[in-house]
Specification:
This protein is an alpha/beta fold. The chain has helices at residues 10-21, 34-44, 65-72, 129-142, 151-181, 190-199, 205-208, 212-215, 218-227, 230-246; strands at 3-6, 28-30, 48-49, 58-61, 81-84, 99-105, 122-126, 146-148. 49% of the residues lie in helices and 13% in strands. The protein starts with a strand and ends with a helix.
């Protein structure tokens, strides 16, 4: 099966790398950013182009959500299978007469960070059973966690990921601002972060909650509020209110 990956960003890079590491041949990686494409091509030994798509059986679109529709129009092969990797878009975002599907890897991707692809869940949605079988077999060569998902369910999967990843990372950024302001190395907080994450492997997140909000320690809460201002103060109040509401304090 001929496979082409479209894109040159974080998802495209890691998708291509996952395929190469698992001996899944790629016919081409295609995109607009020649500098990034050349880097991927040289590292993974994949042909690349910014001008023309090679004839392929499967096209995997790994671009930002707002670019999926326009990029999908570049594919003219009617008997091809075309998939996007978005967590929030429906299959209908792909504009063409070809077969459509979603091939969503649930992970945060950065080119500078190595990943164990075997642990990345893939969520698959297709128009027919044959394509579902094809994509399940393909994803199973990469990952041990492959699941069928409707668009409706995938929207909630993506929403969960935003809470569990993007929001948490933003809190790390805010925490680092505070530690930097007091000239305390943020590295000193990494064991705490590690333990927080490791704990929820064995304990439900709700049961693992600690801190002044769940204890309803008003003295500490008021003290912290006095130390904060602007956006961080609003985040602190909102988070504590949410915690207290969850535990009905």
């Amino acid at each position: 099966m001929q496979i082409v990956i479209i894109g040159s960003g974080n998802v495209a890079y890691h998708m291509a790398k996952a395929f190469v590491q698992n001996n899944i041949p790629l016919a081409q990686i295609f995109g607009r950013n020649e500098t990034e494409l050349q880097k991927i091509s040289e590292e993974l030994n994949i042909s690349y182009s910014t001008k023309s798509l090679v004839d392929s059986d499967l096209y995997i679109i790994c671009v930002s959500d707002h670019s999926v529709e326009d990029v999908s129009k570049l594919i003219q092969k009617k008997d091809a299978l075309v998939v996007h990797t978005s967590g929030s878009l429906p299959m209908e975002a792909l504009k063409g007469e070809y077969r459509k599907a979603s091939f969503y890897p649930l992970q945060t991707f950065s080119k500078s960070k190595e990943l164990d692809y075997s642990n990345i869940p893939f969520f698959i949605e297709t128009e027919n059973e044959e394509d579902k079988k094809t994509l399940f077999e393909l994803a199973s060569k990469i990952s041990k966690n492959v699941m069928e998902s409707t668009h409706e369910k995938r929207k909630y999967i993506h929403l969960t990921a935003v809470f569990a990843c993007n929001f948490v990372n933003h809190l790390f950024s805010r925490a680092k601002e505070i530690s930097d302001s007091q000239e305390v190395p943020f590295d000193y907080f990494l064991p705490l972060i590690d333990e927080t994450v490791q704990k929820i492997y064995k304990i439900e997140p709700k049961a693992a909650q600690t801190g002044p909000a769940v204890r309803n320690d008003k003295r500490i809460l008021e003290l912290h509020e006095q130390l904060l201002q602007d956006e961080s103060l609003e985040i602190y109040k909102t988070m504590n209110h949410s915690i207290q509401k969850m535990y009905e304090l």
